[in-house]
């Protein structure tokens, strides 16, 4: 079997393309009424997911509130569009320090990842998909990526570490289990 080689754009060129394409999508009125998540691949093609279950939003909300309380030196975002090597991905929750926010600017899509990117897992998420998304966030500059399972169990990953951490290094007081009300 022949090996496959994929030619990727440089990170800077991909980011320029992603930001330009995202601006086109946000300006197009037909996307305003679309329910669910909209992301793009590295070619600018739109990737759509249906709205998640209510429990997904519940975990997303609880994580947002806790991060806001525990990390007052920055800002928390939901459905945060981030330019990656494979298009624009939307982190369920993200946290950026004031210093990082100064670099990110106030555009419609972040040119690189904030320090913390959180994914709330859905029933159809595969392990391979989550490994890939985690790698994309780290490649885009995230320092930590967190996964919240469907039962609220948190798994913390740090850039450069092959195994999950017992707790977040950036937010050590964040609980290992997010409880829904």
What does this structure look like?
It is a single chain. Helix content is 30%, strand content 25%. The chain has a single domain (11-158), classed as tt1808, chain A, CATH 3.90.1570.10. The strands form 2 sheets. Strands 3-4-5-6-7 form a 5-stranded mixed sheet. A two-stranded antiparallel ribbon has the order 1-2. It has 181 residues and is of the alpha+beta class. The longest helix is centred in the N-terminal third of the chain and has 17 residues, at 11-27. The mean pLDDT is 91.
In short:
The chain has helices spanning 11-27, 54-70, 98-104, 127-139; strands spanning 37-40, 46-49, 74-84, 87-97, 116-120, 144-148, 154-158. It is an alpha+beta fold. The chain has one domain (11-158): tt1808, chain A.
List keywords for this structure.
single chain, 181 residues, alpha+beta, 4 helices, tt1808, chain A, globular, 7 strands
Number of domains: 1
Q: Can you summarize the main beta sheet?
A: 5 strands, mixed
Spatial strand order of the main sheet: 3-4-5-6-7
Strand content: 15-25%
Average pLDDT reading: 91
CATH superfamily membership, which one?
tt1808, chain A
CATH arch. level architecture? Alpha-Beta Complex
> Percent range for helical residues?
25-40%
The ordered H/E elements are: HEEHEEHEHEE
| Count, helices | 4
Number of strands: 7
CATH class: Alpha Beta
Question: Structural class, from secondary structure content?
Answer: alpha+beta
Low-confidence stretches: none
**Ends distance:** 53 Å
